[in-house]
Amino acid sequence: MDLITLSRWQFGLTTIYHWLFVPLTLGLGWFVAFMQTRYYQTKDETWRKMTKFWGKLFLINFAIGVVTGIVQEFQFGMNWSEYSRYVGDIFGAPLAVEALLAFFMESTFLGIWIFGEGRVPEKAHLASIWLAALGSNLSAIWILLANGFMQARPPLPTCSMKPTDAWKW
Amino acid sequence: MVNFGALVANPKAWIFIWHTLADGLAMASFLILAVSAWHLVRKQNVDFFKRSFQMGALVGLIASTLVFLGGHTMGQYMREVQPMKMAALEALWETEQPAPFSLLTIGDLSGKQEVWSVRIPYAMSFLACNNFSCEVKGVNELQAQYEAQYGPGDYIPLMVVTYWTFRIMMFFGLIMMGASAWFLWATRKKDYENAKWMKLVPFGALFLPYLANASGWILTEMGRQPWIVYGLLKVQDAVSPNLTVLDLWISLIGYTVVYGSLAVAMVYLMKKTVLAGPDAAIHESVDVAPAIVGSQD
Lengths: 169, 297
Fold this sequence. Notes:
Structural class of chain B: mainly alpha
Shape of chain A: elongated
Number of strands of chain A: 0
Mean pLDDT of chain A: 82
Largest interface: A-B, 83 and 90 residues
Mean pLDDT of chain B: 80
Number of helices of chain B: 9
Low-confidence stretches of chain B: 286-297
Strand content of chain A: under 5%
Radius of gyration of chain A: 20 Å
Largest sheet of chain A: none
Oligomer: heterodimer
Number of strands of chain B: 4
Helix content of chain B: 55-70%
Low-confidence stretches of chain A: 154-169
Structural class of chain A: mainly alpha
Shape of chain B: globular
Helix content of chain A: over 70%
Number of domains of chain B: 2
Number of helices of chain A: 5
Number of domains of chain A: 1
Strand content of chain B: 5-15%
């Protein structure tokens, strides 16, 4: 196989693999947050059990999603350097916002949620799972904004190598 | 970067976000349905899993309906911004007005010529523009148009892939919508956990969303080939120039081995947690967390 085909396969396989875990994290976070809220309101032990059980599945899934996501970011520089050189100025921005705001938010509050039970006030513990769920969905939003640029950039009269020109639409 | 606001306001991206975040919820609902049904069939923690199952069914129905509506909206937008993807997912060679929806199209081995097909008249126009009369451009016309616009080259995606992934995504997505509606309807009976169909849920609900989901993304990414940035940069011009075929084989095999073992670890851990059930989860987390942070309280 030639270089392009192999590069495509590599990116395709690693992306699909990454994407097997991400959507579950996106959705399950809301469920766990809701369950914990119900426990907070009612003190019904079943809600607490539900939070713990589904929360544990959420965490396992989250861990693998993170590991495989980091590989994706490296590939833009290592395997697709011409791409990064050409549109990095545009594509890099949402990617950086994703990592610095959304992902850090998600992992920080998830850390508080995992280790903070009984150590932080109950309300703060509850808020941390909501913020973790929100963070993971914000992450997805930034990545999809980056992808949206690749999918549907209105046509240009000329293709300039300067990203600033490429972005006037 | 000139206009960050335009990047964030990109309507295509927001339809994607709608479709994708709703899909995340649908996927989580179906995992909950699958795991709950598995335990319900075995009469373990019945109250716990009935409550979970009902939540899964309700959210699953809402979320998969949202996914469906998002996808339909995306179709209309795609006709404007990525007409080639639209033509390729339909295997529509010639421009048609009104356009039919293909039930089954068989192409030759190159995937670029139609051999035989069955089509539902007008249906594609409905998918593409919500009415029964609009024109949907065909692959051949678009190819000629792109050649005039961007120079000679092959602008047609691999149609075997786009055509089938679209169908898999849509078919499984519709099953998910129907199934969650059925589950929700069924939960009005008190003893629904004893129903015969319950035995099928763990297996089906686990795999349908994964297949639908992966197909959807393969469709959208394969459908924009050869472009990496639509209309601006082709995939072949985006690859690192200093890479060798050997490099890629090494990294590809490396990823496969590492990801393979990750998958084994993940399936093992998920399975262990699921089979152990809620009582184990609640005890373990109480014991483990203080040990990790080194506190005794």
